[in-house]
């Protein structure tokens, strides 16, 4: 729904007063798809409305008696804003237009654009309103479709195309939001960064299509861990994944990291590549910020946890390394 005054260049000229107008003007007005109308300001009664209104909305031409009929046949969600706007603009003598949903006789709704011209008498007082109703349903449908496509494209831009989980761009945006939220709320914030062990050797042994399938299975397992609406699991790049866990303390985050390891082990994805164990495993970095300091940054936190991941790699892989420097060994699956 939109309401706005018309610029001077867009103001329509008022039609002739139809009952006294030559037949040619009446024929021209009633042969257009736009619906002409006129309202007497003093009585708030329709002096005229085109017969096209019955074709469009189903209401007979002579059923449009007063402004109340126009108001009653407007969608309840549009009624207050549109009526208040049109009345205020008309009283001020300002030409205007408004979009709203008009009720059809069979109970549906049609999007209407009403273009209104204010007619003044010799004394400068408002005498009448004249205008045209336009069916803009197709235009509204097209606009909504474009908005839907835009939302879909935006979603695609935030989704990893291979795994269907969030991508790095989405994670970066969410991290900044949650970092600032943690600073305001003094709630903890945790990260789990995970990298598959010997993944290059996996691709060498099984091929890249098998590698893609492996990543998809890992993503599915990790998605099940991000249970709350604000939890994020994202593909961080290559074979690296990350979990963003707002309002999650160190103990709870440790349990979730252990669950990551368990779920990956339960997949029993055969590895057997050079230097690797029988099944695919992962190394994890884990960190929790109990209270976000004013001078700290989300990037610093991320880099610190990422450093824990690489510490786990150096320490033998298939393990969890925490930001505090403690490590949890995991037996080879």
How would you explain this protein's 3D organization?
By secondary structure, the chain is an alpha+beta fold. The chain folds into two domains: 3-142, Beta-Lactamase (2-Layer Sandwich), CATH 3.30.450.20; 158-329, Reverse transcriptase/Diguanylate cyclase domain (Alpha-Beta Plaits, 2-Layer Sandwich), CATH 3.30.70.270. 40% of the residues lie in helices and 24% in strands. The chain contains ten helices and twelve strands. The chain has helices at 23-30, 52-57, 67-72, 76-91, 137-157, 168-185, 199-206, 208-223, 250-267, 298-314; strands at residues 3-5, 35-40, 45-49, 96-103, 109-120, 126-135, 189-196, 232-237, 240-246, 282-289, 319-322, 327-329. It has a six-stranded antiparallel sheet, sandwiched between helices. A six-stranded mixed sheet has the order 8-9-7-10-11-12, sandwiched between helices. The longest helix is centred in the middle third of the chain and has 21 residues, at 137-157. The two termini are 60 Å apart. The model is unreliable at 325-333 (pLDDT under 50). It comes from Pseudoxanthomonas daejeonensis. Residues 187-325 form the GGDEF domain. It catalyses: 2 GTP = 3',3'-c-di-GMP + 2 diphosphate.
